[in-house]
Amino acid sequence: MKGLPEERTIRLAQYMIENGATVRQTAERFGISKSTVHKDITTRLKTLNAVLYDSTQQVLRTNKQERHIRGGMATRAKYQARADKKSSHPL
Fold first, then answer.
1. Tens-digit pLDDT string for the chain (91 aa)
2. Alpha-carbon distances of 27 from 9, 15, 59, 80, rounded to whole Å
3. How far is CA 17 from CA 11, 56, 77, in A?
4. CA 56, CA 77: separation in Å to the nearest integer?
5. Which of 25, 30, 32, 65 could form a disulfide with 36 if both were Cys (CB 3.0 to 4.6 A apart)?
6. How far apart are CA 9 and CA 84, in angstroms?
7. How far apart are CA 9 and CA 15, in angstroms?
């Protein structure tokens, strides 16, 4: 993702707000590191656009509150896939 850091920061914040995206999802979508996304939306955005910053922080808070649920779902899917693999292979 090329361009000015200020423009990138605004685009990242808008994407996160519109999609309720996590830092990881945003980083993957824009092809940049999670560290860059996090720095942009927590540090740089605060000085660029306070209203957008507040909205983005709400998305971050929501994602943080829900992360244990997503982690549990991922673990469940992992072990379900293992169980399915075992049951499909004859001994």
1. 666 999 999 999 999 999 999 999 999 999 999 999 999 999 999 999 999 999 999 999 998 888 777 778 778 888 888 888 888 766 5
2. 12, 11, 15, 28
3. 10, 6, 27
4. 29
5. 32
6. 43
7. 10
